[in-house]
Amino acid sequence: MTQCIVYDNTTHESETFFGIAAAKKWMKERIRQGHEVEGSKYRIYSDGEVVNCGKINLTGNNRSFVANSRQTKSNY
């Protein structure tokens, strides 16, 4: 499961999303209002392990390699 946590540095609010599209939409709306935002995505495995997959980019793709894994191509 992928979890996205976005944070508004202007109002100090945070939201948790389970899809990258919804997180990007929230971030873009806040930027239109003049707020400064940032976000990170995490991969959560069934055994409870949480892996940080990097920051959310509003332009381009959000695929990344996860260190110490058997990944052969960037995804998530």
- The proportion of residues in beta strands is 25-35%
As a percent range, the share of helical residues equals 10-25%
From the helix content, strand content and strand pairing, which structural class follows?
alpha+beta
**Strand line-up of the largest beta sheet:** 2-1-3-4
- Count of helix runs: 1
Q: How far apart lie the N and C ends?
A: 9 Å
Radius of gyration: 13 Å
Please state the average pLDDT score.
84
Low-pLDDT segments: none
Overall shape:
elongated
Overall strand count: 4
Following the backbone from N to C, one meets helices and strands in this order, namely EEHEE
Major sheet description = 4 strands, antiparallel
Report what the structure shows:
The chain is of the alpha+beta class. It is built from 1 helix and 4 strands. A 4-stranded antiparallel sheet has the order 2-1-3-4, with helices on one face. Strand 3 and strand 4 form a beta hairpin. The radius of gyration is 13 Å and the shape is elongated. 14% of the residues are buried. The mean pLDDT is 84.
